[in-house]
Amino acid sequence: MDFLIFAAFGLSLWAQFKVKGNFNKWSEVEASSHKTGAEVARQILDGNGLYDIPVEAVRGTLTDHYDPVSRVVRLSEPVYYGHSIASISVAAHEVGHAIQHKESYGALVLRHKMFPVVNLTSGIAPFMLIGGLLLGQLNLIGLGIILFSFAVAFQLITLPVEFNASSRAKRLIVAEGIIRNDEERGVNKVLGAAALTYVAAALMALFELLKFVMIFFQGRNDE
Which one of the listed residues 28, 39, 94, 223 is annotated catalytic? Predict the structure, then answer.
């Protein structure tokens, strides 16, 4: 089990490397439409009736996100002002989340409802698990497993949310004529690498949970 956790951690590091590498590579390739990430986001939002959702620039790199509470698409400055394949891909992906929100996409709705619970349990679970291991208290370990399972479920639910947003992004920028067919490869590279980071995070969390479950049942067998 330790090997699987280590492998998932290695996959996570590799995925982050791929994200940065693909983003940097395709940031140097200007899109044929010459549109900025901000212009693409605005075009897709308006095309889907989301005129009231603003697009804002934020500092940093790969800090792009959709804020469902404030209902704002926030794009990092390289994406907001950039004319590249990478900028267009990331901007369209974040708008995909805004469209999910509008349509009450099931997995997104569930993730939003889980967030307050996960925010609480993810802070408590490590103390329960570590305390249970140090004190040899199976009850604490069991409680920690239950709390940690919420975080794992959140990671797993995030996968369809992210994959669906990327699928929407690809479909929309082709339908809107924002990219040509020969530019789809770059879009797939950028969004595919980003999706891999979520897969790696989910696997690592799942393997960690299974490890603690095995420790719990081993402890019960030893009693």
Answer: 94
Reported as a single tens digit per residue, the pLDDT across 70-94 is 999 999 999 999 999 999 999 999 9
> What are 84-138's pLDDT values in tens digits?
999 999 999 999 999 999 999 999 999 999 989 998 888 888 888 888 788 777 8
CA atoms within 13 A on the CB side of 104: 0
- Residue position matching structure tokens 């249970």: 132
Asked if 12 and 201 touch (Cβ cutoff 8 Å), the reply is yes
Calpha distance 86→20 (Å, rounded): 11
**65-67, strands of its sheet edge to edge:** 55-58, 72-76, 65-67
How confident is the model over 35-70, as pLDDT tens digits? Answer: 999 999 999 999 999 999 999 999 988 899 999 989
Strand-pairing partners, residue 30, are: 84
Cα four-point dihedral sign 88, 163, 185, 173: negative
- Rounded to whole angstroms, the Cα distance separating 123 from 110 reads 20
CA 8/CA 116 separation, integer angstroms: 26
Judge whether 184 counts as a catalytic residue: no
- Give the Cα separation of 146 and 151 in Å (integer): 10
Q: Report if pTM > 0.85.
A: yes
